[in-house]
Design a protein that fits this description.
- Helices cover 35% and strands 14% of the residues.
- It contains 11 helices and 12 strands.
- A 7-stranded mixed sheet has the order 1-7-6-5-4-2-3, sandwiched between helices. The protein has a 5-stranded mixed sheet with strand order 8-9-12-11-10, covered by helices on one side.
- Helix 5 links the parallel strand 4 (140-144) and strand 5 (169-173).
- Helix 2 (50-63) packs parallel to helix 7 (235-245), helix 3 crosses helix 6 and helix 10 (307-316) packs across helix 11 (358-371).
- The longest helix is centred in the C-terminal third of the chain and has 20 residues, at 248-267.
- The radius of gyration is 21 Å and the shape is globular.
- The structure holds pyridoxal-5'-phosphate.
Length: 373
């Protein structure tokens, strides 16, 4: 069976007459346990839950490669997943190498907490795989490709090779691409970290995250962290995520296709100073992106002349909902500099292509660009 078929059928129950086709969410804090809890699969809802088990099995399948089976653990949010990797790997004196342009909150978490507890932080940009020059003595290389929101690309295979030679573990924030499009464990990463708030669940209505690994010891460290810190998803979120998985291939293919078409359209417009999308042949990371991604992701960033132009564009666009986040079925965009987090232009827009009809999107975005002149 090919991957799409497996994903569509991943949450089905075994075919037993009279049984439901899908499990419902299991709402439980304590489970019934008589006497010795050893060997009882479910005892308390902070440690395990059957709804997680079903979702994690499906996510593990998506994260697996030709020759290995990955194991996934879900978390309360993408940031809970990020924290689990930092927390289970890093100890005082360890060196962590982060992208200087990484997802903002991951950087702040590292700077506000982990460096204050003795972790030594080094940073370099994603573009050009520049982090590869900082690996001497490192414990953890943290990469993010395509980076959010700058859409910079680094070479996952090459960086994993260098990091492993230097004795470091590699974690890849795979949120923008998703593991359906980019198999980072197969490319050599030790951890695939994903905010499932984005394309994996895709309906802009919940927060969730996961980490996938192939190594059992890394898995145990993450699971221990999750149980001790309680950074667990609710059963309802996990169930909704499982329900969304069946449409992941359809949703992602459509939004990646729409993103590609919009990137090409924006490129031809005089109002647009720059378009950042790894699928464009003149993107500096395009060749590497082609070698490691099956689809180029739903995000297109582009730059208008000013803050005023970006704001007028967002106001004039009827099919582009002004909202943060990305990866939903609805097209959204925001003037990213409004948060003040990243070193980007005032007119920088991060757009997430949804699943609407592309002709409607092009017409609407075209008129909004004219209104923003
Ligand atoms: C959104 C995001 C996160 C954090 O995920 P949450 O689910 O919001 O906690 C981490 N990394 C990247 C690249 C993201 O886009």
């Amino acid at each position: 069976m090919r991957e799409t078929t497996r994903i569509v059928r991943a949450m089905l129950t075994p075919a037993v007459s009279g049984e439901p086709m899908h499990e419902g969410p299991v709402f439980a804090a304590p489970f019934h346990v008589t006497g010795d809890p050893a060997g009882v699969p479910y005892s308390y809802g902070r440690s395990h839950n059957p709804t997680w088990t079903a979702l994690e099995r499906a996510l593990g399948m998506i994260e697996s490669g030709e020759n290995f089976n990955a194991r996934a653990l879900n978390f309360a949010s993408g940031m809970a997943a990020v924290t689990a990797v930092f927390g289970s790997v890093l100890r005082p004196g360890d060196v962590a190498v982060l992208p200087s342009n990484s997802y903002f909150t991951a950087r702040v978490l590292m700077e506000e907490y982990f460096t204050k507890m003795g972790v030594d932080l080094r940073m370099a940009p994603t573009a050009g795989s520049a982090q590869g020059d900082l690996l001497h003595g490192a414990r953890l290389l943290w990469i993010e490709t395509p980076s959010n929101p700058g859409m910079e690309i680094c070479d996952i295979r090459a960086l994993c090779g260098k990091a492993h030679a230097a004795g470091a573990l590699v974690a890849c924030d795979n949120t923008t691409a998703t593991p359906l499009s980019q198999k980072v464990l197969e490319l050599g990463a030790d951890f695939s970290v994903v905010s499932d708030t984005k394309s994996i669940t895709g309906h802009s209505d919940l927060l969730l995250g996961h980490v996938a690994v192939r190594d059992d010891n890394l898995w145990s460290g993450l699971e221990r962290w999750r149980t001790l810190t309680g950074s667990i998803p609710g059963p309802m979120e996990a169930w909704l995520a499982g329900r969304s998985l069946a449409t992941l291939p359809l949703r992602l293919e459509r939004s990646c296709e729409n993103a590609m078409r919009l990137a090409e359209f924006l490129k031809g417009r005089p109002e647009v100073a720059r378009v950042l999308h790894p699928g464009l042949p003149d993107h500096p990371g395009h060749t590497v992106a082609v070698s490691q991604m099956r689809m180029f992701g739903p995000v297109v960033s582009f730059v208008l002349s000013s803050r005023a132009a970006a704001e007028s564009f967002l106001e004039a666009a009827e099919l582009v909902t002004d909202a943060s986040s990305f990866g939903g079925v609805t097209t959204t965009a925001e003037r990213r500099a409004r948060w003040g987090h990243d070193a980007i232009e005032d007119g920088f827009i991060r757009l997430s292509a949804g699943c609407e009809d592309i002709e409607d999107l092009i017409t609407d975005i075209g008129q909004a660009l004219e209104a923003a002149r």
